Amino acid sequence: MRQDHMERGLQNLLREFPLQSRVMNEPEPVQKIYAEIIRFWVLHAHPPLAQNFPEIPLQRLRMLDAVAISPEGLIGAYPFSAKETPIRVSNGKHQSIFAMCAIDALAIPFLWNAPIEIESACHDCAVAIKWGLDPNGDSPDIIGAPYVAMGHLDGKTCAEQPACSGLCTGIYFLCTACARNLTMAIYPLQEAQYISQMFFGFQVALLQKFQYLQGDLP
Ligand SMILES: [Zn+2]
SUPFAM superfamilies from the entry (predicted)? Predict the structure, then answer.
């Protein structure tokens, strides 16, 4: 793995979308609501309802672009999307869910502590992409695993445009053939997983802080 390349990718992502520092700079009651939302997704694998959370901290989290609330009142929280996206994730126990972007999808087995299957399509040639991923980062068929491209990092997140409708659309999977032809920032699966786990690791720490244990899915 190329440590410098991964670190640059991670730092670019954190600069464009400083989710961790936004959440961790909030007072504890807001952090707690955030942790409850993540825990709900981890335990139930479907979106929590906005009506079940106190309005002020929830709106604060929305303002920070830490959560996205659909018109139907469903709460999406990176990496989990309440809306359909081109990246479907399943664990074989629940109905499949959607990830906000490719880097987000790679964090899900780690948060669920369960193996998953990811279904998507190559962004460039649309060939179907489907493979399994373990929480410890092993992929049973790493050879055929897709690449992750991280583009369009142009600083337009938060107030101007939530990451889920801006930044995330530029972070996608590519098949091996298409990845070979590109000069933009491309990461093989293991490098992308490193970026993903470094980016979302604070969520596990936050769940532990409020004693919401990760556990296996029910
Ligand atoms: Zn392709």
Answer: NosL/MerB-like (SSF160387)
Structure tokens at 180: 């070979």
Q: Outline where 45-134 has alpha helix (H).
A: 55-63, 102-112
Q: Is there a cis peptide before residue 79, judged by omega within 30 degrees of 0?
A: yes
Its pTM stands at 0.91
Q: Phi and psi of 47, rounded to 5°?
A: -70, 135
Q: How far apart are the CA of 214 and the centre of ligand 1, in A?
A: 35
For residue 160, give the H/E element and its range. Answer: none
Residues 6+ apart with CB under 8 A from 15: 153, 155
Ligand 1 center from residue 178 Cα (angstroms): 4
Q: Where are the domains of the chain?
A: 3-209
> From ligand 1's centre to the CA of 188, what distance in Å?
14
Report domain 3-209's class.
Answer: alpha beta
Sign of CA dihedral 54, 19, 16, 71: negative
CA of 122 to the centre of ligand 1 (A): 5
Q: What are the tens digits of pLDDT across the range 106-134?
A: 999 989 988 999 999 999 999 999 988 88
Ligand 1 center to residue 168 CA distance, Å? 19
Rg, the chain, Cα only: 16
Q: Are 119 and 128 in contact (CB under 8 A)?
A: yes
Of the chain, the percentage scoring pLDDT greater than 90 comes to 65
Separation of 175 CA from ligand 1 center, angstroms?
4
CB atoms within 10 A of CB 54: 10
